[in-house]
Amino acid sequence: MNIHMRIKRYDPERGDGKPYWSEFTVEADPLDRLLDALNTVKWTMDGTLTYRRSCAHGVCGSDAMRVNGRNRLACKVLVRDVGTRVTIEPMLGYPVIKDLVVDMDPFMEKYKSIKPYLINYDAEPAAERLQSPEDRARYDEGTKCILCGACTGSCPSIWGNPDWIGPASIVNAHRFIFDSRDQATAERLQILGQPNGVWRCRTIFNCTDACPRGIHVTDLIEQVKRAIVYNDTRDS
After folding, report:
1. pLDDT value for 232
2. Mean pLDDT of the chain
3. Which residues form the 2Fe-2S ferredoxin-type domain (predicted)?
4. Mean pLDDT, to the nearest integer, of 94-110?
5. Contact indicator for 72, 150 with CB cutoff of 8 Å
6. pLDDT, mean of residues 7-18
7. pTM higher than 0.70, yes or no?
8. What is the mean pLDDT of residues 72-99?
């Protein structure tokens, strides 16, 4: 089948510095991935087309982009599911570096701000820090995050306030807040209780729809909100 691709472009070295559109018609198998079609364009039609890609298996999260108005991983979207015409844009809410490549540095700084690592002040054990299957299940869903940024780029709260910490950071905080081995829950809840923390979430559910890993992002955010309220109540 032939697929008509309309791709939003941006080249900082162009004289006017404005975004523009390029259009290509690519022959593709219905079971090809959208990433295959993009590769065909880059390798055979326009070598200047710029986008990120790496594993091509939906694990690295590098090829997140806006496909027909929804954030998706190009390596997971089948050609048959986008039809014969597809519009591809960089994700909203991020500065665009070139074409479909966005600047992920602010996103990663917010991620690092929630201390995304196990904090435990006890003496180092001789073996693993064990926990029950039930304790593991409490935070298991958040461990699926691949930091693609699709959830954050789909959120109107980020579009309106780029300083907001964003859903991906909250999901990764959830992973440690509810880990029975971690001892920095209060510290993370304090970080997320700030003006640009969890309360900026307006429960729109765009993040849940955008997640390529099927994480119930909005639900995890609500769990963190309840944890803050419970912690404040207990301390008062």
Report:
1. 56
2. 95
3. 1-92
4. 97
5. yes
6. 91
7. yes
8. 96
CA distances to 41, 113, 173, 191 from 187, in Å: 48, 11, 11, 6
H, E, C per residue of the chain: CEEEEEEEECCCCCCCCCCEEEEEEEECCCCCEHHHHHHHHHHHCCCCCCCCCCCCCCCCCCCEEEECCEEEECCCCEHHHHCCEEEEECCCCCCEEECCEECCHHHHHHHHHCCCCCCCCCCCCCCCCCCCHHHHHCCHHHHHCCCCCHHHHCCHHHHHCCCCCCHHHHHHHHHHHCCCCCCCHHHHHHHHCCCCCHHHCCCCCHHHHHCCCCCCHHHHHHHHHHHHHHHHHHHC
Residue 236 has pLDDT above 50, yes or no: no
pLDDT tens for residues 170-195?
Answer: 999 999 999 999 999 999 999 999 99
105-235 CATH: 1.10.1060.10
| Domain 2-102, CATH class in plain words | alpha beta
Could you tell me the residue ranges of all domains in the chain?
A: 2-102, 105-235
Can you say whether residue 29 is alpha, beta or left, with left for phi > 0 and alpha for psi between -120 and 50 degrees? beta
State the Cα–Cα distance between residues 84 and 164, nearest whole angstrom: 37
- Cα separation of 115 and 113, whole Å? 5
Which pLDDT does position 230 carry in this prediction? 85
